[in-house]
Amino acid sequence: MRIITRSDDSILYELDGKPALDLYETYLGDEAAALPASVLLYPLKIWDPACPDDEVVRTVLSVDHARRSMKFAGDIPQGWKARLMRGSFERLIDSAAEAADSAKSQMENQTSYDGLCLIVSCVGRRLLMGQQTEEEIDVVYSSIGGSFPIVGFYSYDEILANSKTGPSGLHNQTITLTMISEVA
Q1: 21 in Cβ contact with 65 (< 8 Å)
Q2: Where are the alpha helices (DSSP H) in 29-174?
Q3: Cβ distance 103 to 144 under 8 Å?
Q4: Angstrom distance (rounded) from CA 75 to CA 63
Q5: CB–CB of 55/45 below 8 Å?
Q6: Please, how many CA atoms are within 13 Å of residue 67, restricted to the half-sphere of its CB?
Q7: Is 24 helix (H, G, I), strand (E, B) or coil?
Q8: Model confidence pLDDT, tens digit, residues 161-175
Q9: How far is Cα 20 from Cα 16, in angstroms, rounded to an integer?
Q10: Using CA atoms, how far apart are residues 19 and 23, in angstroms rounded to an integer?
């Protein structure tokens, strides 16, 4: 866990008082030579220490070797906590199934299950997972059942509510589901 000690909007300069790019290069080892493309597997989870359950994920867009900084897809507030993450295809697919299970459980009190499931997934997931993104759709479909047709698209960011605390926020590398049903 790190503290964001210097940032400006979406540019991260320092973590724990040290250049952010230095930390990423150390963490990535040999994969650092492929920056910024190699960091799709290594997003940054950030949160306000006053609201630790309101975590968001940020994706690296570019690096500035001269300034030893990194630009992210979304704000990186100074004083917030940060954790470098390591993506795994299995966990990404499992999280899609969890999202579908959660969405379906919220629909269980409906008297009609006719409806629609809208999936919005981050293009960063698509770039990272390639053809394995089809597995995400398969697990969503399996979870919600055949009575909900699925439609969706890829976006560059998603705005969604935190399932634990409620406030909405900008997220990267996420999959979001919205289930719409007509109540009989």
Answers
A1: yes
A2: 89-107, 123-129, 133-144
A3: yes
A4: 15
A5: yes
A6: 13
A7: helix
A8: 666 656 677 677 778
A9: 9
A10: 7
Q: Tokens representing 118?
A: 């809208």
Contact yes or no for 40/124 (Cβ under 8 A)? yes
Retrieve residue 11's tokens: 């540019």
- Closest by Cα among 36, 99, 42, 46 to 74: 46
Contact (CB, 8 A) for 150 and 140: yes
pLDDT tens digits for range 132-160: 888 988 998 888 876 678 899 888 767 76
The residue whose two tokens read 């969706």 is 152
In 3D, which of 149, 173, 148, 147 has the Cα closest to residue 160? Answer: 173
Residue keyed to tokens 């795994």: 88
* Tokens 């935190």, located at residue: 162
Task: Name 83's Cβ contacts closer than 8 Å, sequence gap at least 6.
Answer: 1, 2, 44, 45, 46
